[in-house]
Design a protein that fits this description.
single chain, two-stranded antiparallel ribbon, mainly alpha, 4 strands
C-alpha cells in the first residue's frame, strides 16, 4: 500500500487531469452547450493546478519504472500544461465567434495534456505508447473539430490515417527492441545495449525514431503537416505547434539518451539526416506558400530540425539547448497564431500573405508585433528566436565531429527561410491595400493580448527572462543525467 500511495503521488499531475477531465465531461454532458464557457475556464484552472502539482510534487520512479518524475519531466510538463491552457483561451472566443463552440474542445485538450504528460514521464516502451496514443486520439478529433468545413474534415482524416501508420512503425520498432533486449524498461534496454550491441536492436531503434519523428512533423515524416495546419481550426493548429511538439521532443530525448545512451553513434546519424532533410523541406517548401498557416507548417518543419540538433549532440548542453529552443519557439508560435486569430475582415479570417497589404495604416501595433515575431523566428538578434538558435547551434558546434558542419547547414537554411518572413514584413509595411478592401474587424481581446504579450517577450523581455529560464533548462538537463 505505501508503494501505491507513493506512485499515486508521483503521477498526481496526470491523475489530476484525467479525473478533472472526466468531471468536466460530465458537467458538459448534463448541462449542455450553455456550459461551454464555464467548462473552458474550469479547464484552464485545471491545467494551472496540474502545473502547480507538477512543480511542487516529489521526484522518483513509479509503477516498476514505467513512470519517471525527474527535473526533465517537470520542465516539460510545465511548458505542456501552460501551452494547453493558452490554446484553450485562444479557442474559447474564436469558437464562439465561429458559432461552433462546444464543451468538448477544452475537455479534449485536457485529456490530450494527460497523454502528453505521460509521454514526458515515460520510463518504458508501454507507457511511452500509452501516452502517445492517449494524446493522439484527442488530437485526431480536434483536427476535424469544425466538421462542417471540408478542409477540416480532410485534415482530420489525413492526420488519423498517417498517424495510424506512424503508430505501426513505432510498435514494430518497440517489438524489435523488446525481442532483443528482453525488457520494456529504458534502464534495462540501456544495460543490454551497452554489452550486447546488435543489428536487430539498431533496426528497432530506426523504426522507433521514424514513428516519433512523425509526431514532431520532422521531414521526411512531415506529409500531414501542411494540410493539417491549413485545414484545422486556427486555435487547434496553435495547440499542434506547441504542447505536442514539446512532449514529443522530451520523449525523444528520454528514449534516446536514456534507453540508447551507449548507441549514440547509431541514432545520431539518423537524427542528423532527419535534421538536414527538415532544413531543406522547411526552408524551400515555405518559399512558394501563400496561405499563412501553411507557411507556418513549413516553418515548423525547419525549426524542428534545429531542435533535433540539440538531441543529436548527445550531451547535457544539447538537451538544455533543445529545451530552451522549444520554449522560446512555442512563445513565438502563440504570438503568430494570436495575431492570426485577431485579424479578420467582415468576419472572415485573414489567411493569405497578400491580405496583409496596408495593415500598417489600419493596425500599426499589430504590424509592429507581427514584424517582431517574424524577425524573431528568422533568428534576428537580439530577439528570442536568435537566442533559441544560438543555444542549439552552440551545442552542435560544441559536440564536435560532423555536428559543426550540420550547424552550418542549419544557418544556411535559416537564411533561405528568411525570405518568407521578410516577405510578410514587406507586404505589411510597403504594399498598399487594393481598392475597395474592407477594414479589419475589431481584434478579440484574448487573441490580441496573447499576441502582444508574446511579441513583447520576444523583445525586449527575453533579455531578462533568459536570466531565470536558462538555469531552469540547465537543471532539467542535468537532472536527467545525460553524460
Amino acid at each position: 500500500m505505501p508503494d501505491l500511495i507513493s506512485a499515486l503521488r508521483l503521477s498526481a499531475p496526470e491523475i489530476t487531469l484525467a479525473v478533472g477531465g472526466l468531471v468536466l465531461l460530465m458537467i458538459g454532458a448534463f448541462s449542455g452547450e450553455r456550459s461551454t464557457r464555464v467548462v473552458s475556464w474550469l479547464s484552464v484552472l485545471l491545467l494551472l493546478a496540474a502545473t502547480a502539482v507538477t512543480v511542487t510534487g516529489p521526484l522518483g520512479q513509479a509503477f516498476n519504472g514505467a513512470y519517471v518524475a525527474d527535473p526533465l519531466s517537470v520542465y516539460g510538463k510545465a511548458v505542456i500544461f501552460l501551452s494547453s491552457a493558452v490554446a484553450i483561451i485562444l479557442g474559447n472566443g474564436w469558437m464562439h465567434r465561429q458559432k461552433i463552440a462546444k464543451f468538448e474542445y477544452p475537455v479534449l485538450i485536457v485529456l490530450a495534456s494527460a497523454g502528453m504528460g505521460m509521454m514526458a514521464s515515460s520510463g518504458d516502451l508501454i507507457s511511452m505508447y500509452v501516452g502517445i496514443e492517449l494524446h493522439s486520439l484527442a488530437l485526431y478529433v480536434l483536427a476535424a473539430y469544425h466538421r462542417d468545413d471540408l478542409k477540416a474534415s480532410e485534415a482530420g482524416l489525413k492526420y488519423f490515417v498517417l498517424g495510424a501508420l506512424s503508430s505501426g512503425l513505432l510498435l514494430y520498432g518497440a517489438s524489435l527492441i523488446y525481442g532483443f533486449a528482453g525488457s520494456m524498461r529504458f534502464e534495462d534496454i540501456a544495460a543490454y545495449a551497452a554489452t550486447n550491441p546488435s543489428t536487430g536492436l539498431v533496426f528497432g531503434l530506426v523504426f522507433l525514431i521514424s514513428g516519433l519523428a512523425f509526431k514532431i512533423s520532422a521531414a521526411p515524416f512531415h506529409m500531414w503537416t501542411p494540410d493539417v495546419y491549413e485545414g484545422a481550426p486556427t486555435p487547434v493548429v496553435a495547440l499542434f505547434a506547441s504542447a505536442p511538439k514539446m512532449a514529443a521532443m522530451v520523449l525523444i530525448a528520454r528514449t534516446l539518451e536514456g534507453a540508447f545512451a551507449n548507441s549514440h553513434q547509431q541514432w545520431a546519424q539518423v537524427l542528423i539526416l532527419i535534421s538536414l532533410i527538415s532544413f531543406a523541406v522547411g526552408a524551400f517548401g515555405g518559399l512558394v506558400q501563400k496561405d499563412i498557416q501553411r507557411l507556418l507548417a513549413y516553418s515548423s518543419i525547419a525549426n524542428i530540425g534545429y531542435a533535433l540538433l540539440g538531441i543529436a549532440a548527445g550531451t547535457t548542453l544539447g538537451v538544455e539547448a533543445m529545451l530552451m529552443f522549444m520554449t522560446l519557439y512555442i512563445i513565438d508560435q502563440f504570438g503568430f497564431f494570436g495575431l492570426l486569430l485577431s485579424l479578420s475582415r467582415n468576419g472572415r479570417p485573414i489567411r493569405k500573405v497578400q491580405d496583409l497589404a496596408g495593415l500598417r495604416k489600419e493596425r500599426p501595433l499589430t504590424t509592429i508585433a507581427l514584424t517582431i515575431l517574424s524577425l524573431s523566428v528568422l533568428g534576428m538578434p537580439p530577439l528570442s528566436g536568435f537566442w533559441a538558435k544560438y543555444y542549439v547551434f552552440g551545442a552542435a558546434a560544441d559536440a564536435g565531429g560532423i555536428m559543426p558542419a550540420v550547424a552550418v547547414a542549419g544557418l544556411v537554411a535559416s537564411v533561405v527561410a528568411g525570405f518568407y518572413y521578410l516577405r510578410i514584413i514587406k507586404v505589411m509595411w510597403f504594399d498598399p491595400a487594393p481598392e475597395g478592401t474592407a477594414p479589419t474587424d475589431a481584434a478579440p481581446v484574448e487573441a490580441k493580448t496573447i499576441a502582444l504579450a508574446a511579441a513583447a517577450f520576444s523583445f525586449p523581455l527575453v533579455i531578462v527572462a533568459l536570466i531565470w529560464l536558462q538555469p531552469l533548462a540547465s537543471r532539467a538537463a542535468t537532472g536527467f543525467g545525460v553524460s
